[in-house]
Amino acid sequence: MVEQHDPAHAGVKAGRVVGLLTAILVVVSLFRVQEPFVGRLVSLVELLGVDPGPSVTIYFYLYVGGAAVGRYALCYVVGSLIGVVYDWLDEPSVAVLVGIALLAGLVDGVVAAGDTRSLLIGLGYVFAWLCYVPAFLWLFEDGDRGVRRFEDR
Predict the structure, then answer these.
(1) CA triple 129-132-135, angle to 5 deg
(2) How many C-beta atoms surround the C-beta of residue 63 within 10 A?
């Protein structure tokens, strides 16, 4: 089976790296607010006249898992799109790639900082997106050498 090699494919793999990093950040940020989150949810459920039992805690863990999977999937898609833009721009300089990844990171970081009310978490998202660049270049160049080695035979 021949593995497809193009910037979008390398972008997907680099997006997975960012997805893993941001999934860890979302889990950390949610565990920071676990007690107030569960407390508010228990109050809401009790207001409806239902005994919450352990279901609220189970819901919290499902929520954390869903958020982590969602982050991973989002970065997977955005990483692929960055790879497509990189190809569409006919493989521009690394500075352009850094600019695109930084733009994605800033948008993601601003949303995360606003949601978590933590500048540190927001900066973590920005740095996670900056990790996209070396991962993308390593994957894209590694695959490019593999293609050249195959063509030389």
Answers:
(1) 155
(2) 13
Each domain of the chain, given as residue ranges in start order, spans 7-145
Fill in the amino acid letter for 131.
C
Structure tokens at 46: 């009790």
Instruction: Classify residue 150 as exposed, middle or buried by CB count within 10 Å of its CB (0-12, 13-18, 19+).
Output: exposed
- Cβ pair 122, 110 in contact under 8 A: yes
Note the pLDDT tens digit of each residue in 57-78: 899 999 999 999 999 999 999 9
Measured distance CA(57)–CA(78) in Å, rounded: 32
* Cα three-residue angle 113-116-120, rounded to 5 degrees: 55
What pLDDT, on a 0 to 100 scale, did the predictor assign at position 46?
83
- Are the beta carbons of 116 and 108 closer than 8 angstroms? no
Cα 144 to Cα 20, 51, 57, distances in angstroms: 25, 59, 48
**pTM of the full predicted structure?**
0.81
Structure tokens at 122: 């927001």
Tokens of residue 38, six digits: 């569960």
- Split the chain (153 residues) into runs of 10 and give each run's mean pLDDT: 68 95 94 87 84 85 95 95 92 92 95 90 95 93 47 41
